């Protein structure tokens, strides 16, 4: 294992330990981290690129993180990010997603079937949304937890109202629970972790045109 891989392992451990030490802000749930399960490499779940338009907001997002108590996560990520691959779900396209969303989101895997730390669970990586972007209401079978790293974003669960989230907040999504996120004048950087095995291509929108059903 080389130096950056060691750094990545330390970053992954730091994030999951941070999650385990906090509670879901919606219902106070303590997140139980599953034991790692190995898997074969699988690259078809992701559309990889170094040129997603949203990446122009990455430096600003990392800078925002440094103003809060999760600054160590941003620092460690900055040291390894050049060795990681940004991606989008290959099932998100112009037929079911708005151009503003496709230009405004990307994901970089840390652990998972197509990530450097290869495993089926726990699977995780960082989600980046640009300013003024809605990640439409969607759902999936694996239970999921988000660790919010930047200020100024909102969440919606099921068909409820939007609520504010802050750096350090945990938001838990149960199996098949509808959830959506949106930004305002700042980008969002957050860690998204799946607690069960699953395929990114199985994520389902709230309806055929991926509009959000939140209030």
* The number of domains: 1
Q: Compute the gyration radius: what is it?
A: 16 Å
Largest sheet: 7 strands, antiparallel
- Pick out the low-confidence regions: none
H-E order: HEHHEHEEEEEEEEEE
- Number of distinct helices: 4
CATH architecture field: Sandwich
Q: Quickly give the structural class.
A: alpha+beta
CATH topology: Jelly Rolls
| CATH uppermost class | Mainly Beta
Q: Work out the helicity level.
A: 10-25%
The general outline is globular
Strand content: 25-35%
Strand order of the largest sheet: 1-2-3-4-11-6-9
* Distance between the amino and carboxyl termini: 48 Å
* Secondary structure: number of strands: 12
Q: CATH superfamily assignment?
A: Jelly Rolls
What's the mean pLDDT score? 94
Characterization of this structure:
This protein is of the alpha+beta class. It has a single domain (3-28, 48-205), classed as Jelly Rolls (Sandwich). Helices cover 19% and strands 26% of the residues. The protein is built from 4 helices and 12 strands; from the N terminus they run αβααβαββββββββββ. It has helices at 3-20, 58-65, 71-80, 99-103; strands at 47-48, 86-88, 105-111, 123-129, 134-139, 144-148, 153-157, 163-165, 170-173, 179-183, 188-194, 204-205. The protein has a 7-stranded antiparallel beta sheet. A 5-stranded antiparallel beta sheet has the order 8-7-10-5-12, with no helix packed on it. Helix 1 (3-20) runs antiparallel to helix 3 (71-80). The model has no long low-confidence stretch (mean pLDDT 94).
């Amino acid at each position: 294992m080389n130096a950056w891989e060691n750094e990545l392992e330390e970053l992954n451990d730091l994030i999951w330990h941070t999650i385990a030490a906090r509670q879901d802000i919606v219902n106070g749930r303590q997140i139980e981290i599953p034991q790692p399960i190995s898997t074969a490499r699988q690259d078809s779940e992701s559309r990889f690129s170094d040129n997603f338009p949203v990446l122009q907001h990455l430096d600003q997002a990392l800078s925002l993180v440094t103003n809060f108590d999760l600054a160590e996560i941003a620092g460690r990520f900055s040291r390894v990010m050049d060795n990681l691959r940004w991606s989008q779900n290959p099932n998100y396209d112009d037929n079911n997603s708005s151009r503003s969303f496709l230009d405004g989101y990307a994901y970089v895997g840390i652990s998972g079937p197509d990530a450097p730390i290869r495993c089926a669970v726990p699977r995780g990586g960082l989600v980046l949304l640009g300013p003024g972007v809605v990640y439409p209401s969607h759902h999936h079978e694996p239970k999921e937890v988000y660790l919010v790293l930047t200020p100024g974003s909102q969440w919606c669960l099921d068909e409820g109202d939007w609520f504010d989230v802050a750096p350090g907040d945990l938001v838990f999504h149960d199996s098949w629970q509808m959830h959506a996120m949106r930004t305002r004048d700042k980008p969002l950087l957050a860690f998204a972790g799946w607690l069960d095995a699953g395929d990114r291509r199985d994520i389902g929108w709230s309806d055929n045109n991926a509009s959000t059903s939140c209030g």
